[in-house]
Design brief:
Elements lengths: L2 E6 L2 H15 L20 E4 L2 E5 L4 H17 L5 E11 L7 E8 L6 E6 L2 E6 L4 H14 L4 E8 L19 H13 L2 E5 L2 H11 L2 E11 L10 H29 L1
Parallel strand pairs: 1-3, 1-4, 4-10, 5-8, 8-9
Antiparallel strand pairs: 2-3, 4-9, 5-10, 6-7
Helix pairs in contact: 1-6, 2-5, 3-6
């Protein structure tokens, strides 16, 4: 049976996603309660409906890496074979209108190189951060079918920090000028970077290492070339945050319909 795992930062967002997907797939009453399967730990939350698992991963590479190790072991012991895993979330855009959804082609580090580095036993191990290109194309096709919001494919820069690591001027410390910031972000744009977040590199590396078909689908909340602060209403922000859910939900529904027709 085809199965889907969706991961995202906050427990609230991933509970919201499982409620949304339950309604879309008409699997249960949308008003049903969905218990947190991992209520015994505060590291992450996990929800399930039908063939869909929804898991929160917190913020940053260390947090999502812990969750992925334990999730991949869970999938192995549950003998899951036909699994598609998608990270849904928010990001800062580069040269894109706020609300644009980015489907990641490659995850680049802060020097614009497509790699994930980790120190293991005192030695630096470099891993590939390519994502499944055919899966990315499927998401682009789904966006055209929906025709509700702009969706693009591009590279995603994954940083170790939200402030200085992303060339922000509004952190507690800032050792560079406005010009330095703009020059850096323009170089990122020239390297094909469409958005910036903090989890995609280890997500891509670990999924590739595990043989999992994976994608990253994030909405941009602002254009970082124009500023560091959000300037939209909470209602507009909420509508932006729902866009990856809508796109991934459409994809899952489409795949399950295909499978039903074949059987």
């Amino acid at each position: 049976m085809q199965q889907f795992v969706c991961v995202g930062g906050s427990p609230w967002r991933m509970k919201s996603f499982i409620e949304y997907i339950a309604a879309e797939l008409r699997l249960e009453d949308p008003k049903s309660e969905y218990p947190n399967i991992c209520a015994g730990t505060d590291r992450y939350a996990m929800y399930k409906v039908g063939p869909v698992l929804s898991v929160s991963h917190g913020m940053g590479i260390p947090s999502i890496a812990i969750m992925l190790h334990e999730l991949i072991k869970l999938l192995h012991h549950a003998c899951c074979t036909d699994v598609t895993i998608v990270r849904i979330g928010t990001s800062g855009g580069i040269g894109l209108d706020p609300g644009t959804v980015v489907v990641t082609k490659q995850s680049l580090d802060a020097t614009f190189v497509p790699k994930f580095e980790q120190v293991i036993l005192g030695k630096t191990v470099v891993r590939n951060t390519d994502l499944d290109p055919s899966l990315a194309e499927e998401f682009l096709r789904c966006s055209k079918e929906l025709d509700q919001f702009e969706t693009v494919a591009g590279n995603t820069m994954c940083t170790l920090d939200f402030y200085e690591g992303q060339a922000r001027l509004d952190g507690a410390f800032c050792s560079y000028s406005v010009k330095d910031k703009q020059d850096y972000l323009n170089k990122a744009s020239e390297a094909g970077v469409c958005n910036i977040e903090m989890e995609s590199s280890v997500f891509a590396a670990m999924c590739k290492l595990s043989g999992l078909r994976a994608a990253v689908v994030c909405v941009t909340l602002l254009d970082r070339l124009k500023g560091d602060q959000l300037n939209v209403s909470p209602e507009v922000l909420h509508s932006y945050q729902q866009r990856p859910q809508i796109l991934v939900g459409h994809y899952i529904k489409k795949q399950l319909k295909k499978k039903a027709l074949r059987s």
